[in-house]
Specification:
Layout lengths: L2 H28 L3 H4 L2 H29 L13
Helix pairs in contact: 1-3
Length: 81
């Protein structure tokens, strides 16, 4: 697999996953405050956001698996001088 796809893209996806997870955590924390918890509309919106962020996390995991399936020119050993 080309270097960019193997290393850089993996790093970027990893950071994207961490960022999405951190955002989800902050949104979940906000849902514990009474100003949101006591408002059905706000509470429902928080749950929708959490659900969407969970879907983003799953999509990132799926993309990581797809990246593992990219094998360009790996059938023969590479010689690096």
């Amino acid at each position: 697999m080309p270097y960019v796809l193997q290393d850089v893209l993996s790093d970027l996806l990893g950071q994207l996953y961490v960022d999405a997870s951190n955002i989800k955590s902050k949104v979940a924390e906000s849902g514990k405050f009474s100003i949101i918890k006591d408002n059905k509309q706000a509470s429902k919106a928080v749950m929708k956001i959490i659900k969407k962020l969970s879907a983003i996390e799953q999509a990132i995991k799926s993309i990581a698996i797809d990246i593992d399936d990219i094998g360009v020119g790996t059938s023969t050993g590479e010689f690096h001088a």
